[in-house]
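Board notes (copied after class):
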Amino acid sequence: MFAHGTSRVLVACPDARPPAYQAVIALARASLLQRFETSFYYKGDGPLAALARRFAPERYRRWQRILGRRHNAEIPSGRVRSDWGYDLALQIENRLAARRAAPRREVARWRTRRFDLRIARALAHQGPGAAFLFSDVGSQYSLPLCRTLGVPSILSMVHGDVREEQEILRIEAETSPDFFPIYLGDGSLDREELNWLHERRLRDIELADRILVPSEHIAGRLAAHGTPRSKIDVIPYAADVRRFQPDPSKQHDGRCTFLFAGGITQRKGIKYLLEAWRKVRRPGWRLQLLGALPRDPGPLAAYLNDVEHLGRVGHAEMPAKMAAADVFVFPSLFEGSAVVTYEALACGLPSIVTPNAGSVVRDDVDGFLVPPRDVDALATRMEQLGANPDLRAAQAEAARARAMEFNWSRYHRAVVDAVRTTCAPEKTPVRGVGTSWN
């Protein structure tokens, strides 16, 4: 479909998630990148930046820290096409109160369809050799057009299987009605909107020629629902092992700091962690929650005096905060593959996670796997690691070694291999599925 060294892959992802930027870097290094379609992307210094640096240096430095998350020096800026409208629509959505669900829903759908249509037009005009699309990008226009044009399509799923989430929502609504309102924290749990999104994601799975998932857990769920296993590649994510490193001065003793990092929401299993903590806490042990609380903490308020809330931490501070802890705990109910779990391993933290977290933790090697919602199992493993400094030390060493296996270079190679396999000359794409995208 394309020769080695030809820039022919169109990549589309409307946000700055690390797997998307790293996929673009991988394809650029392999001389396979045609264009990267995204939302706002900071292309580095220019005339406006020079003026800001000269006349408002303090403000410029603050903005640099923020804008730096939308920039990577290894991404060729000339191949990036930004869409400011996507970010503007997100801001409008965030300003619409929950009581105005209908207009917020319409803005979200307009934003999603608009980006999809933009990608379809790029496919028609650019004629790429392949399309590499992230979740929620192309189900209405782009992926059907790929089939019509015979363009091989690769879907990178950044979330779990939606049928699993539907079951999780049902169980949580029945068994944890007190915590269910903060399933997404401050995010509005609009069931009508979520059903619309789930339908798009199911179409993604059906239409894509190849599906990249970050964990065996997700691959198993897809296969159980009928997706051919030959269509699925498992490509775990990674951590920046140069930024996230163990604290060399750490002493493993009778004290123990457990760390949770991420959105403090029920989707991350926060209720079950707090209940487990009440079972195991003791003098010299502490549980830190790193992340933003919901504006209305609701049922969380009864637990907050028992924990240390670190709040939202800046990107630059995150490695030190994480390395200072002793054990990472992340009992999530629904993920793709949380990058924070790789970062914890890179910092040498034994990790207690659920299979749903999409982590590469090996049970009883780098930490422990516990079933979701199992408070007793979670408490048992927390007590086991907290009370046994030697076990913590051994698993800490194994955790760092495990993280070194899952660096971004490994991810780069796997992404390029998946693209080349999908676009091999002997692979004949499915044709003939029409769409009204224009």
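Comment from the instructor: The chain is about 45% helix and 10% strand. The chain has two domains: 9-40+82-238+409-422, 256-406.
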